[in-house]
């Protein structure tokens, strides 16, 4: 069921970040008023002043509630990819509680939460366990909600697909953890944004897996990227521990975290696929063909993007 009419006020966490930027752009195109809750208020404004930014300060819940007052729908993209110093996934769950409570206190009517496929409260992986906890607090908030469960995103600001391409461009071989047969279903970031905006304009509670039209084994994914960018490399199969060690050594030179143990476990555990029909329509092969000169031309640093 769609909400009648536009002209709502929407809050988006990180409107200048990756998925948040695409969601915000679509909302502005539809005539909505958008505000941003951001950890990086000094970043360049991609919206030429059209989006007012407020600090995402979890230590000041009253200020968050004040910023959210008058907001109709809150789009929550906040999460941390891996633990870094005091920015941990367990802390992110606590911070998410602050956000949900602030939204409820401010009178927000609906929450859109960007989760992950196959979250579970009993998962041994903090990423999937934490996402499950935030899904539950969102559903238990008493507010209307839509939960989207994407897998890996691809797009111009992507990190994973870009950095696979970067390694293929710059190294003579590429290491595949294990047999490479585990699968994933990437979704184009703007397709996810479209689903989020659809969720904004609905009233019903919903939980959707958000995946693209392609299902690849990891081995097929790496081969596809190499073929599209003209950087075919020998693919060698190595034990996951050795792949992680190599990633840690390379990460020291690149001043970044390339891959974590939990990410490998989630990928090899086939947690980035679903049996639901795809809701995204953009094929990775088409996107790679259109962007084959730029993808992987520069390394994309997670630490530099979020912690510099």
What is the fold's blueprint, element by element?
Layout: E1 9-13, H1 18-29, E2 33-38, E3 52-55, H2 61-68, E4 73-76, H3 89-106, E5 110-114, H4 126-139, E6 144-150, E7 153-154, H5 160-170, E8 174-177, E9 183-184, E10 187-188, H6 189-200, E11 206-210, E12 216-217, H7 218-229, E13 235-238, H8 240-254, H9 261-268, H10 284-290, H11 302-307
Parallel strand pairs: 1-2, 1-4, 2-3, 4-5, 5-6, 6-11, 7-10, 8-13
Antiparallel strand pairs: 9-12
Strand coverage percent: 15-25%
Strand order of the largest sheet: 3-2-1-4-5-6-11
* Class from secondary-structure proportions: alpha/beta
How does the overall form come out from the CA principal axes? globular
Oligomer: single chain
Distance separating the two termini:
42 Å
How many β strands by DSSP?
A: 13
SSE ordering: EHEEHEHEHEEHEEEHEEHEHHHH
Q: What is the helix fraction of residues, given as a range? A: 25-40%
Biggest sheet character: 7 strands, parallel
How many helices? The count is 11
Description:
The structure is a single chain. The protein has 308 residues and is α/β, with parallel strands linked by helices. It is built from eleven helices and 13 strands. It has helices at residues 18-29, 61-68, 89-106, 126-139, 160-170, 189-200, 218-229, 240-254, 261-268, 284-290, 302-307; strands at 9-13, 33-38, 52-55, 73-76, 110-114, 144-150, 153-154, 174-177, 183-184, 187-188, 206-210, 216-217, 235-238. The strands form four sheets. It has a seven-stranded parallel sheet, sandwiched between helices. Helix 4 links the parallel strand 5 (110-114) and strand 6. Helix 2 (61-68) crosses helix 3 (89-106) and helix 3 packs parallel to helix 4 (126-139). The protein starts with 8 loop residues before the first strand and ends with a helix.
